[in-house]
Amino acid sequence: MASTLNRKEATGNQSSWDTLLPDFPKGPLCKYRKKASFNWKEMAVFLDGKDTIQLKNRIFSALESDPLFAHHPGEDLCREKYQELTFLRCKRLFEYDFLTRQEIIENPLKILNMIICIGMYDWSLCLQYSLHCGVFAGTILSASKRFADFVKQVYSMEIFGCFALTELSHGTNTKGIRTTATFDRSTQEFIINTPDFEAAKFWVGNMGKHATHAVVYAQLYTPDGQRQGLHSFIVQIRDTKTLLPMPGVMVGDVGKKLGQNGLDNGFAMFHNVRIPKENILNIAGDVTAEGKYSSSVKDVKECFSAALGPLSTGRILITAVSTTNLKLALSIAIRFSAARHQFGPTDDEEIPVLEYQTQQWRLLPYLAAAYALDYFSKSLFENFIEFYAGLLTKQRSQRQADMGREIHALCAASKPLSSWTAQQAAQECREACGGHGYLAMNRLGEIRNDNDPNCTYEGDNNVLLQQTSNYLMSWMNCIRDKAPLESPFGTINVLQDYHHILGWKFTAVSVEECMDSSVPLAAYKWLVCYLLRESDLKLSKEKQSGRSDFEAKNNCQVYYCRSLAIAFIEQTVLQRYHDYIHDPNIPSTLQPVLKNLSALYGLWSLSKHLAVLYQGGYASGEEAGRFIQNAILELCYRLKDDAVALVDVFAPPDFILNSPIGKASGELSIVPMVIKQYRRQPRCF
Questions:
Q1: Could you confirm whether 458 is annotated as catalytic?
Q2: Nearest to 87 by CA among 178, 212, 267, 249
Q3: In what order do the strands lie in the sheet with 265-270?
Q4: What's the CA gap between 165 and 232, in Å, rounded?
Q5: Cα–Cα distance between 543 and 537 in angstroms, integer?
Q6: Strands, E assignment, 197-338
Q7: CA 320 to chain centroid
Q8: What's the rounded Cα separation, in Å, for the pair 50 and 171?
Q9: Which of 171, 154, 261 is nearest to 214 (CA)?
Q10: Nearest residue to 534 (alpha-carbon basis) of 625, 472, 482, 490
């Protein structure tokens, strides 16, 4: 894990930290920075490591120095110009070559850090870049070595790609995809067809204006008329020189969206589009020259999962993207709250709004969530790298299959958790900044709107949670049979003590005792076991009453399976973060504040489940609920003076954050920005 490296690097000294991270400009935030219980630079080096900080500095500096990336306050670009500019910026990113192949091999986490840095500047640009060289190229790379030369064209921008799975009438229900790919034995080609308008590929990022090629998902038909299931194919959709549609392809832009309008989401329909036999991405199966279907994966479900493997990549990326939006919104709102003065104990004395309990309660639990989710998203990415390495080397072991199932279950729940948390936080931050939060120039509206689709694409959040609960329910037979129970990454190992844990009770006897993340962690373990038991019982009752499997599962979602999946992912995030910050190798100067963050995240998340804790008998009487609530407020108070420094650890430079109320100095430079905008308007002065 990268954390081992970070622990070594955190032993640096003040001068080495100063070289990596310059001091912030003097201003209103100095007061809070002096109050902090830790050195923010030491924390940043510990969490990210020297190499990652240097990479971030290199990317941020390049973007700020390049006129192509300049901000133009008050200038509202039309959607067409914004998309054109985004594409030009995307091409420029390839010229910078921020990471070498060797750096990626040595530390794959740097890829994630690079993508996040670009996203902090503009998510439309980040997604365009990621869809092309990550999702599109990554899907092709995982298929076969025969596409090596094709991938070179991807990275040289000779071709531009997109990932075409979703259709107008089928998104999350990928089994319902209706585009067809029929093998023609006489010409050794696949014929791609869209049966009707409802089967048009839709919402495809990069497809609207710029993509020349697409990874198209279609139902494969062999010459004998047999449907072989969902497979992916490389299809050229535009001429690489003129960008005109290829024969038989209708392709265009879907129109203006609520956010991310620099990204050209498109649609496509295919009429007898012929592609070479070699263009099938033989991840799950292939067709012989004679038209016979073959697959190294015998189980139909496994074959389907193999075909959709790239979706896990997207969900893991969205987990990190949403966490970054959480950080951006908090950077603005907490700095503003520390600099903005309103009311006070006397008419002559106004105090920062961060001093108010309500403001602390509104923002600081989200700050704790940002730290916990950030660690989790990086650890999940590292889990995926281990799994992906097995894919590339064609591993067929049981562990490889188990890793795939576990990662699928984790990212199917981490995407909803992180995207919903960021969405709620962005709105809370907007409101916490009052009227200034509503000004577009301060960027909170943009962050909220750009984060919004994270709740939907790569699978609707509520539907995805069913995949996680299905994974958990699949372990019930092992529990009933008292069979060995273990997963590669250990996330279901808590179920080993299922029967014992169900007998646990809330035992804390004071607020102070609750302020250790072991308390909410124990409650979460009970909660997962309890909800698993209740969901299993509910499903059994539904079936016993004569309902079909479909009806029974449908009737078990609300209050049961959905709650189970959410509790499981929250418990997993907390468990990983708790273990991380309680490691004895963590610098003693940083451990107290990290422990407070872990406890606050655990208690705040757990407080949403208080009704179930009482309903199931884990908690009883008034004290348990009161202890948890008062501990949350006390932790918010203790973290109040550390809040600005905690934000400083992850906030990007002012140019990247691009918010007049979120500047590193704390100077609220709204009036100068308003005047700049005013002067850009026609007939001014």
A1: yes
A2: 212
A3: 201-205, 265-270, 249-253
A4: 9
A5: 10
A6: 201-205, 213-221, 227-236, 249-253, 265-270, 273-276, 280-281, 286-287, 293-294
A7: 4
A8: 41
A9: 154
A10: 472
Q: Do 267 and 201 meet the contact criterion of CB atoms below 8 Å apart?
A: yes
Say what the pLDDT of residue 541 is: 96
Please report the DSSP string for 612-672 in residue order.
Answer: HHHHTTSS-HHHHHHHHHHHHHHHHHHHHTTHHHHHHHHPPPHHHH--TTS-TT----HHH
What is the reported pLDDT for 1?
A: 41
Strand partners, 270: 249
The amino acid sitting at 356 is: Y
113 CB burial (10 A radius; 0-12, 13-18, 19+): buried
**Contact at 8 Å (CB) between 363 and 337?**
yes
Q: Which two tokens stand for residue 407?
A: 């990662």
For 312, how many CA atoms within 13 A lie in the half-sphere containing its CB? Answer: 26
Distances (CA, A) of 64 to 58, 60, 68, 83: 10, 6, 9, 20
Query: Which tokens go with 319?
Result: 């987990």
DSSP lists the bridge partners of residue 219 as: 180, 230
Pick from 162, 172, 92: nearest CA to 128: 162
Contact, 151 vs 240, CB < 8 A? no
* CA distance linking residue 31 with residue 373, whole number of Å: 28
The residue from 167, 458, 542, 634 that is catalytic is: 458
Collect all residues with Cβ–Cβ distance below 8 Å to 644 and sequence separation of at least 6: 29, 32, 33, 36, 334, 335, 338
Q: pLDDT class for 685, splitting at 50, 70, 90? A: very low
Give the span between the Cα atoms of 381 and 320, in whole angstroms.
Answer: 9
Give me the pLDDT at residue 550, please: 94
What span, in angstroms and rounded, lies between the C-alpha atoms of 346 and 335? 24
Q: Residue 283 above 90 pLDDT?
A: no
- pLDDT over 70 for what percent of the chain? 93
Per the structure block, which two tokens stand in for 556? 């078990």
The alpha carbon torsion through 453, 385, 2, 54 (nearest 10 deg) reads -70
| Strand ranges for 338-484 from DSSP E | 341-346, 349-352
In the numeric block, the tokens 């939907």 are attached to 456
Comparison of pLDDT for 671 and 101, the residue scoring more: 101
β-strand pairing of 227-236 with 249-253: unpaired
d(Cα 60, Cα 652) in Å, to the nearest integer? Answer: 8
pTM passes above 0.90: yes
Q: What is the pLDDT of residues 228-277, one digit of tens each?
A: 999 999 999 999 999 999 999 999 999 999 999 999 999 999 999 999 99
The predicted pLDDT at position 211 comes to 97
pLDDT single digits (tens) 334-348: 999 999 888 878 878
Alpha-carbon span 317 to 410, nearest angstrom? 13
Q: Answer left, alpha or beta for residue 26, where phi above 0 means left and psi between -120 and 50 means alpha.
A: beta
DSSP string, 655-685: HHH--TTS-TT----HHHHHHHHHHHSTT--
Q: Where are the alpha helices (DSSP H) in 257-356?
A: 300-307, 310-339
pLDDT tens, residue by residue, 347-401: 788 899 999 999 999 999 999 999 999 999 999 999 999 998 887 787 888 898 8
Contacts of residue 166, defined as CB under 8 A and 6 or more positions apart, other chains included, come to 201, 202, 203, 204, 457
